Amino acid sequence: MRLPGAPAATPAARPTEAERVRSILAAAHSMTVVVDGVRSEVRQLDGGDVLGRLHLHPAAPAAGHSSSPAADDRPSIRLEFTDIAPTPVRDRVRARVTVLGHLLTPYTDENSAPGESTCVEYGRAILETSEGTSYIGLTELDEAWPDPLAPYEAGMLTHLLDDHPELVTLLLRLVGPPPSAAVVRALPLALDRYGITLRLEERRGHRDVRLAFPSPLDDVEQSGAQIQALLSAARRRSHRNTLPA
């Protein structure tokens, strides 16, 4: 599936923070909605892009304009998402995303159903990962595209692990420096248009290694060729690795 109007592939090694937020929203199957302090769980997203059900608007003019009510007079809304690795790695939470804003139209549980939408005055999005916390503005979010692999990532990674574990071991040949004897297990952690990330679990702790595709893809149909290119490069490496996958 090619994204309509998607920008050309770039040599970036990993998604931007805004791209990662868009990808998490696009692949989400559930979220927590907090409206004026009242929490509710929404579990019927079915991987549909949340931004198809929310219309995000820039912040209103500053208070003082009599024709625009102050933001404090509108109900606040907080959307919480948790990005969990589809494979049984340690520390499966890969990221947390929080979208903050104020409601411009009423929100009910029906608004989370396909075909329904809610208008939200956008405040900011917060991305929390093991690398730190980032804040994404509306312009950045609007300009970013969800990763074309995001809706398929879970199925692709579980298929790789369940049906072809030997290929995970093969990919370890591309890790530099080679994994040490302290590594007891290697599992696929993440997959995006730029490459695949493996988690190397040691007796104490773990580390993540990123294997970049020869070039970023912008179409899910390109993923097979890119993965095969990584596997071919791994086969050409002379050192072998017997770590369990």
Helices and strands, with pairings:
Blueprint: H1 17-27, E1 31-35, E2 38-42, E3 54-57, E4 76-84, E5 93-103, E6 118-129, E7 132-136, H2 138-143, H3 153-163, H4 165-171, E8 183-192, E9 195-202, E10 206-212, H5 223-236
Parallel strand pairs: 3-6
Antiparallel strand pairs: 1-2, 1-4, 4-5, 5-6, 6-7, 8-9, 9-10
Helix pairs in contact: 3-4
Report on the structure:
Helix content is 20%, strand content 31%. The chain is an alpha+beta fold and 245 residues long. It folds into 2 domains: 17-143, Pnp Oxidase, Chain A (Roll); 153-236, Alpha-Beta Barrel (Split barrel-like), CATH 3.20.180. Strands 1, 2, 3, 4, 5, 6 and 7 form a 7-stranded mixed β-sheet that branches. A 3-stranded antiparallel β-sheet has the order 8-9-10. Helix 3 (153-163) packs across helix 4 (165-171).
In short:
This protein has five helices and ten strands, in the order H-E-E-E-E-E-E-E-H-H-H-E-E-E-H. With 245 residues, it is α+β, with helices and mostly antiparallel strands. Helix 3 (153-163) crosses helix 4.
What would the keywords be for this entry?
245 residues, Pnp Oxidase, Chain A, Split barrel-like, 2 domains, seven-stranded mixed β-sheet, 5 helices, 10 strands, elongated
CATH architectural name of the largest domain: Roll
The radius of gyration computed from the alpha-carbon positions, rounded to a whole number of angstroms, is 20 Å
Uncertain runs: 5-12
Helix proportion:
10-25%
Number of helices: 5
